Predict the structure.
Amino acid sequence: MALTTRATRALGAVAAVTLAGATLAACGTEHMMRSAGAAASAPSARATAPATPSTPSAPSAPSAPSAPSAPSAPSSAPAATPSTGHGTPSRTPAAGTGHHGSAHHGPTAPGTGRPQAPGHSTDAPRGTAAHGTAVQAPDRGTAVTARSIQHGVEAPGRSVALTFDDGPDPEWTPKVLAVLARHHAKATFCEIGPNARAHPDLVRRIAAAGHRLCDHSVHHDEAQSGKSEEYNRHEILDARNEISRAAGSGDAPLWYYRAPGGDFSPAIRAIAADHGLRPLGWTVDSDDWRRPGADAILATVNRELKPGAIVLMHDGGGDRSQTVQALETLLDRLDAAGYTYTFPQR
């Protein structure tokens, strides 16, 4: 009987302990559930700091529509040949840089001759030109020549400014002039001083036909910007005097200065502008100096050409037969597309 009573008491104690444990477990579960519910209903602690407003960039000028291209005609241009009579490029080719070993297509870096955008200009237009008609020269007696590099043209709308470097050349300049005359097109000729001195008849012929003259230095030094001020004054001013004397005009008929390879510096631009010569850039580099073939020259121009373009080609510095061939076809296409011919702004 005593044994049975002890066993019963032991079983009761075990049951009491078990019941207490169950109750404690249930309380813990309820606490966890309440904690989870509170966490779910609490607002997110993720901070959203107000964004700092960014400075709005200046609106881009709308680009003019590209000229429609006439179907390319098969060209009988001779195969490309090694360049002769032209200097070795002084810089590594890079997008948006000058010719003579560079692909000049992008915005202008400060102090360089590299283009900003087709048709861009810091000056207001000084006039317009009808098809094949030269714009009347502005009064240079009172105007102050800007030092910035010019990439804009005088005539608005569907116009293009043709420019030719490194002449005059006794073989190729007359052929370029003949093509321009057939199309009633005007152009700007950027001349090397000694070449002008050697061929004054060509300089006078260019001026008499209503084209403009541009100073293109004495030695065509594409590293000119790294030289002294005295050297740069010699390159710019001596060439200007040689071209002016060759033209036979008391008032130097020069409008611009184009640094060889577009190698401008602030000092070079200042010397030119302070002597009435507007620093001149370009927006379309035909790459004709490489002599890649007439078809390749045309394809390059056609890819980059827009209304208001300044096109860079060459009438000197070597064999320009491909340039003459490409120019004839280019002007046929420009005529068909309704382009007019104008000059760079001054």
Notes: Confidence is low (pLDDT under 50) at residues 1-99, 101-142. Residues 2-41 form the longest helix (40 residues). The two ends are 130 Å apart (CA to CA). The chain has eight helices and eight strands.
